[in-house]
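URGENT: need a sanity check before tomorrow's submission.

F., can you look over the Formamidopyrimidine-DNA glycosylase H2TH DNA-binding domain-containing protein record below? I want to be sure the sequence and structure line up before it goes out.
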Amino acid sequence: MIELPEALARADELKSELKGKRAEKVWPPSSPHKFCWFNGEASSYDDMLSGRKVVDAQGFGIFAEIIFEGDLRVCFNDGVNVRIFGEGDNIPGKYQLRIDFSDGTVLVFTVAMYGSIACADGSYDNEYYIVSKNSISPISPEFDHTYFFGLLDSAKPNLSAKAFLATKQRIPGLGNGVLQDILFEAGIHPKKKIGSFTEHEKELLFVSIKEVLSEMVRLRGRDTEKDLWGNPGGYKTKLSKNTYKDGCPKCGGEITKAAYLGGTVYFCPECQT
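Structure tokens as predicted:
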């Protein structure tokens, strides 16, 4: 799933690979998916984009977007997978959107569980997009102690650590995937109530958010996610579906896997309290 490290990495890759290239044909879904949502009719995207050059790409929160001439944008989020192909490559026959470029490059969008793909102008009216784009990024200098402690103070004290970090778009781009290592490094149990945090725990959580996300961004995403060419990200997750059976990286004890708040959490019952 796309979270902040992947949004930034995919945007960098798209900019590097596509800037200056002209869209030649946009194909609507060859395999319709009831949990893939479009802005308007996907069949209209060809008329909107064909003949336009890519001028930029950017990532923020849970979104990455390709910017075309005329400020038209193709943005995608969450469970949308994007792959790039060149001339002679075997192009998948099933997709939710496909963009062919005049130099033979092909961009294919697919959705596994759910996700959105939108073609819109700069005023795309989607609350998650707007919040992701306009909120303070947790890796920016503006996301400082004052800002973070303000978020904590404004939240209900009976919220769990996971609920605080990954719901209500308090910190766009920080979701159930990246929070596993953040809470592990901070030594905080995902179900611990934020009202019970000590000042030291608040500081540990703040530092962990900054350091873990920065490292994930530096290494171009997590190893549980894939880049434009299908390669895993460079950040080796400590607690994830890939590693939880290996035991705790700190104490060697057994990692707990549990369903919680609509997703899976991984934690060490000894190191996270």
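My own read: The CA atoms of residues 134 and 154 lie 19 Å apart. The chain has a mean pLDDT of 96. If you see anything odd, call me.
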